[in-house]
Amino acid sequence: MEGFTSFFNMILVALLVATVSSTKLNVPRLRLSYADLLSTNRSSIFSGHHGQLSLTAVFLDEYRDRLFLGGKDILYSLLLGPASSESKEIYWPPLPGNREDCIQTGKEPQTECANFVRLLQPFNRTHLLACGTGAFQPMCAFINVGHRGEHVFTMDPTNVENGRGKVPHDPSLPFASTFNGMSCVGVYL
Ligand SMILES: *[C@@H]1O[C@H](CO)[C@@H](O)[C@H](O)[C@H]1NC(C)=O
Ligand SMILES: *[C@@H]1O[C@H](CO)[C@@H](O)[C@H](O)[C@H]1NC(C)=O
After folding, report:
1. Strand 183-188 to strand 57-61: parallel, antiparallel, or no bridges (unpaired)?
2. Cβ of 41 less than 6 Å from ligand 1
3. For ligand 1, atom 7, which residue shows the shortest CA distance?
4. Which of 48, 188, 14 is nearest to 118 (CA)?
5. What positions does the domain Sema occupy (predicted)?
6. Fewer Cβ within 10 Å of end Cβ, the chain: N or C?
7. In the chain, domain spans
8. H or E stretch including 149?
């Protein structure tokens, strides 16, 4: 089941890239089989560095040719160049003590008491804003992604802000967000 889930997520990422670029050109959505996708030689398979990839946020950065992914306690940066398989990751768990507090209130350690990244948005020329549920203590941080052409991917773990009102506490709540000048507004659906 685990293997199937990661496989599905890989396809999803690939389809997402295809969908986003076709939407932009206002043409019908492109449909590719898995075999078609591989035979183009323009796709590479990414299944996370720990063999399981469960995505909770995706941001395709066409300016930098990068795909940013957020999951459970983790962020990934993938380069989208031809057949590039270079990737970087940032481990981003809840703040110290928050996982334990969450478990103490009777919530599920695996599906609730972790930092599920729910938001990944461009902030300025060098940084993205990332927010996660932080084990029911939402938090946000800036990620340095560098300028176009650099593969920088770092976060200062001491510079974390309260994410209340930006992302939900609950990883399973449907959610959308918008970036309004300097502030980010979360919309709970
Ligand atoms: C993809 O790569 C394989 C092996 O390198 C090659 O045989 C094939 O012709 C390539 N396909 C395309 C569409 O470029
Ligand atoms: C982008 O924002 C971050 C976080 O506030 C800041 O550290 C960085 O210097 C800014 N970069 C630019 C190019 O304005």
Report:
1. unpaired
2. yes
3. 39
4. 188
5. 29-189
6. N
7. 52-188
8. none
Please say whether the dihedral angle defined by the alpha carbons of residues 9, 11, 15 and 17, taken in this order, is positive or negative: positive
In contact, 139 and 129? CB cutoff 8 Å: no
Amino acid at position 165, single letter: G
- Res 6: pLDDT: 43
- Distance in Å, CA 137 to ligand 1 centroid: 48
* DSSP assignment string, 26-86: T-PPP---HHHHHHTT-------TTS----SEEEEETTTTEEEEE-BSEEEEEE-STT---
Pocket of ligand 2 from Cβ distances under 6 Å: 123-127, 142
d(CA 144, CA 139): 17
pLDDT value, residue 1? 39
pLDDT in tens, the chain (189 residues): 344 444 444 444 444 444 444 445 566 677 778 888 888 877 777 887 776 778 899 999 999 999 999 999 999 999 987 666 789 999 999 999 999 999 999 999 999 999 999 999 999 999 999 999 999 999 999 999 999 989 999 998 778 999 888 888 888 887 777 666 556 566 555
Residue nearest to atom 14 of ligand 2 (CA): 124
Q: What is the pTM of this model?
A: 0.75
